[in-house]
Design brief:
Length: 275
């Protein structure tokens, strides 16, 4: 009985395999049937693939966007750093240009003055608290600098040497309003008028010249230079131009206001002159 059952099972298995093989052979020979069966299957698989892969495509796109964002941020940071460096370099270049222009101006100004002594040095100390009062130059006794010598910068007279060490000199600026008593000459259309530069008017931003020796008319924009008539200071250093004249009943008691030729706000190099 057991052998008979096994034989039947084997028979049915072989029969099923044979039918399956014939069916497959028939299907593959008939392309229309194969196409009809596989086409819906392919369509379903394609849709499933599209649905399943959509989130992954979104993640890939998001990942690329994040990478681009980080790349942009990194490039932005580098560009900002370069811009800051360029701005710093530009400021340094502008500062060097300004100093170079002042140095050339000082050299040209000193070359046009007839004097026994002339030396140009860099400003090394200028406190914001006393910006318009005084400064220190890197020139001293070793450079033959002496007290009462005149200092000029930016094309005009700026002060007087008040203290000298071996390597540095202190200069009292004319803009501090103190009494200086520097003899000056005013060139007018009718001749020269001599007077004394006594102080600085901070309200008018002008030098004050008085003790005039002549009643000659003085007009606006007449030039003013040092006269050197005190025997200590150098002559023909530009002081400025006449801004206005305060008249008096006595012509010799008139007061002349002179606009400085030099700019006191920015002084990098100073030329010290003396006889």
């Amino acid at each position: 009985m057991k052998k008979l059952r096994i034989s039947r099972l084997v028979f049915f298995a072989v029969l099923i395999l044979l039918v399956l093989c014939l069916s497959l052979a028939f299907l593959f020979k008939n392309e229309g049937i194969v196409s009809g069966v596989t086409s819906p299957v392919r369509s379903v698989v394609a849709r499933v693939d599209s649905i399943v892969s959509a989130p992954f495509r979104s993640l890939d796109s998001l990942n690329e966007d994040i990478h681009d964002l980080f790349d942009t941020y990194s490039e932005n940071k580098k560009l900002k750093k370069k811009v800051a460096e360029l701005e710093n370099q530009s400021e340094v270049i502008d500062s060097l240009k300004s100093e170079n222009n002042q140095l050339n101006s000082a050299i040209n100004a000193s070359s046009s003055i007839t004097t026994q002594f002339s030396a140009t040095g860099k400003v090394i100390v200028r406190s914001p608290v006393s910006w318009y009062d005084s400064l220190t130059v890197k020139l001293g006794k070793n450079n033959n600098v002496a007290k009462k010598m005149l200092a000029l910068s930016n094309g005009g007279l700026i002060g007087v040497v008040t203290d000298v060490s071996s390597t540095t000199s202190s200069i009292a600026l004319l803009a501090n309003g103190s009494d200086f008593s520097i003899p000056v000459k005013i060139s007018t259309a009718s001749g020269d008028v001599f007077g004394i530069l006594e102080s600085y008017d901070s309200d008018k931003k002008c030098f004050v010249v008085s003790n005039l020796n002549s009643s000659t008319d003085i007009n606006e924009n007449d030039s003013v230079v040092t006269s050197g008539l005190d025997g200590d200071t150098v002559a023909n250093i530009a002081v400025g131009s006449v801004s206005s004249v305060k008249n008096s009943s006595e012509n010799l008691e008139r007061v002349v206001y002179v606009t400085p030729a030099a700019d006191f706000s920015d002084i990098s190099y100073v030329t010290i002159v003396g006889d």
